[in-house]
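From: lab user (bench 3)
To: helpdesk
Subject: output format question, protein + nicotinamide-adenine-dinucleotide

Hello, I'm new to running complex predictions and I'm not sure whether the block I got back is the full result or only part of it. Here's what I submitted:
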Amino acid sequence: MTLDIGVIGVGMIGREHIARLANTLVGARVVALADVDARQAEAVAAGLPGASVYPDGEALIAAPEVQAVVVTSWGPTHATYVLAAIAAGKPVFCEKPLAATAEACLSIVEAEIASGKHLVQVGFQRRYDKGYRALKAAIDGGVIGAPLMIHCAHRNPAVPEAYVSDMAIVDTFIHEIDVLRWLIGDDYVSAQVLKPRNTRHTHAKLDDPIIVLLATKNGVRIDGEVFVNCRYGYDIRCEVVGEEGCATLPEPESVVLRKDAKLSTAIMQDWKLRFLESYDVELQDWIEAAKSGRVDGPNAWDGYFAAVTADACLKAMHSGEVVEIVTPPRPAFYD
Ligand code: NAD
Ligand code: ISE
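Helpdesk reply: Thanks, we reran it on our side. This is the complete output you should expect:
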């Protein structure tokens, strides 16, 4: 069976996902598009034989030919579309964040539980990255003993002027929030944010870099650097320190060069390439699960937990205080 998909939002990652659904993955096709910028939607549809353009996301979700929905519009629009997909009983893959606030994420959790069907997956693609999977296998296999500390960094070479301080948490560090919790099977209990001296490459509305400190229920301490104007490349680092040893996220594959008296490997520049394979695996996995009425990847509860943690990090960043992270117990629906 081929899964007929409607995509809402044909911006940067929307076009990336549409291209992989159309050209790389199997078992699905894009049959419908919607974007507030209708001309962009028409332009993308021109390259997709048989795809229709709908005036808005709601009309796309209601269309009988759409069996499943991919939401890649701006973050503040996600909750409306995810709730509409749940109301229509259609599986929905929503790019991170699940919603702009923890409250909106909770309303999605409640609506999904009330529907009685597992329908929502959130686009935390790092769980599908082969490096993170190898790291998790080492931790789960007991190779390094119980995790005690995690040191990590999320560095982007540069960001546009519209990128402001809060985005370092809700747009960027949100990936660490999700993947580290998954990596060690633990939940967070507190957050603190430190602000080192700013780089001269930032602007008045962006503190860059920052260091986020998280503590987990099991007492693991995490320090995560977010540095989005690091200039030299797109660099994702993660070292888990355990009782018996340390495990480090592998570097992306690169030819080792011996040249001009130097031993070197390339550093990636772009998140789209760094996580290319994981986006493919993530969406292929979602297609297969959606056809069987399952959600195997990060679910609405994970999206909610990430949002609660992000809110605490924002509060910590604005206040300079250590902020407690409190969530209700996970509903049995998500066990
Ligand atoms: P973008 O600005 O390039 O594209 C967003 C698109 O949504 C635009 O075409 C815009 O016209 C459209 N849009 C806005 N409001 C809409 C509405 N109400 N209905 C329909 N379309 C609407 O942004 P982007 O970089 O593609 O990011 C989109 C989402 O994907 C964001 O939530 C972002 O955080 C997420 N994202 C995830 C990753 C990842 O690594 N998983 C990477 C990049 C972006
Ligand atoms: C972007 O939205 C992403 O999700 C990238 O993975 C991240 O590295 C970048 O900082 C975000 O802006």
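A quick orientation on your result: The chain is about 35% helix and 25% strand. Let us know if anything else is unclear.
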